[in-house]
């Protein structure tokens, strides 16, 4: 049985790697690194930089290509088939190095939150002995960058996706909502005059972009900034936190 370590590496800043994560990288016989096309080559490069920074003798690296996800047969079925295809790529990369017993993947953010690596690992045959090394989440990095708490005093918050915001609207029980995996800027589907937003892209990296304020006043700036950044880098990772204003706040903004 092989040992598989899923190592959270934060948002791409090598300083986000914990001592435990660095030790797990140094202990690996083989590290799997995904490639997502030429426009996203620097995502693999960031992982390589982290490996170089925490090791004196870098372990062997095996690259694998991420297959495209189908979107023509329902979201959940498309994701399930996509995970099957990625697991096959992992399997092929591992079997090409039969001498490696300690395998590692460097996972963006934290493997526990909005990441499919655990579900993909469960598809491997034989099943590996899997451990998770926690990392800094994009949500932690976002709230730290804006110097705000994620929750209001005694109030709940919800972490969700842009797809669910578009489909279901604002979660009724939430004081704040953190939105991940949103390539369509789904805050546009809400009544924007009722919300404040804290948005960030490449959070924690040298390219970090931050915008905050009343949603109806900053939404277009976020859209424009996001489009330029995606064109410049070929990829973008962003996340945002929304808070619904109370009636008095909305009235004050209207009067002003």
From TrEMBL:
Pathway as given in its UniProt record: Cofactor biosynthesis; adenosylcobalamin biosynthesis
Enzyme category, top tier: transferase
InterPro entries, per database record: 4pyrrol_Mease, 4pyrrol_Methylase_sf, 4pyrrole_Mease_sub1, 4pyrrole_Mease_sub2, CobF
Source species of the chain: Ruegeria atlantica
GO biological process entries: methylation
Catalytic activities: precorrin-5 + S-adenosyl-L-methionine + H2O = precorrin-6A + acetate + S-adenosyl-L-homocysteine + 2 H(+)
Record-given protein name: Precorrin-6A synthase [deacetylating]
Keywords: Cobalamin biosynthesis, Methyltransferase, S-adenosyl-L-methionine, Transferase
Gene3D superfamilies attached to this UniProt entry: Cobalt-precorrin-4 Transmethylase, Domain 1, Methyltransferase, Cobalt-precorrin-4 Transmethylase, Domain 2
Enzyme Commission number: 2.1.1.152
Domain (Tetrapyrrole methylase) ranges: 4-218
């Amino acid at each position: 049985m092989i040992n598989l370590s899923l190592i959270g590496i934060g948002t791409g800043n090598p300083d986000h790697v914990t001592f435990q994560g660095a030790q797990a990288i140094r202990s690996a016989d083989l590290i799997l690194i995904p490639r997502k096309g030429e426009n996203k080559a620097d995502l693999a490069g960031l992982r390589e930089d982290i490996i170089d920074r925490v090791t004196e003798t870098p372990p062997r690296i095996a690259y694998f290509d991420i297959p495209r996800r189908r979107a023509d047969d329902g979201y959940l079925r498309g994701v399930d088939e996509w995970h099957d295809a990625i697991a096959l790529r992992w399997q092929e990369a591992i079997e090409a190095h039969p001498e490696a017993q300690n395998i590692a993947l460097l996972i963006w953010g934290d493997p526990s939150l909005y990441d499919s690596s655990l579900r993909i690992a469960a598809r491997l045959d034989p099943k590996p002995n899997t451990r998770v090394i926690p990392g800094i989440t994009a949500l932690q990095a976002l709230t730290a960058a804006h110097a705000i708490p994620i929750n209001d005093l005694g109030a709940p918050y919800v972490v969700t996706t842009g797809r669910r915001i578009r489909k279901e609207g604002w979660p009724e029980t939430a004081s704040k909502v953190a939105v991940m995996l949103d390539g369509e800027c789904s805050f546009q589907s809400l009544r924007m005059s009722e919300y404040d937003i804290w948005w960030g892209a490449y959070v924690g990296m040298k390219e970090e972009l931050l915008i905050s304020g009343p949603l109806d006043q900053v939404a277009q700036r976020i859209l424009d900034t996001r489009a330029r950044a995606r064109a410049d880098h070929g990829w973008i990772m962003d996340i945002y936190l929304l808070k619904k204003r109370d009636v008095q706040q909305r009235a004050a903004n209207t009067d002003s």
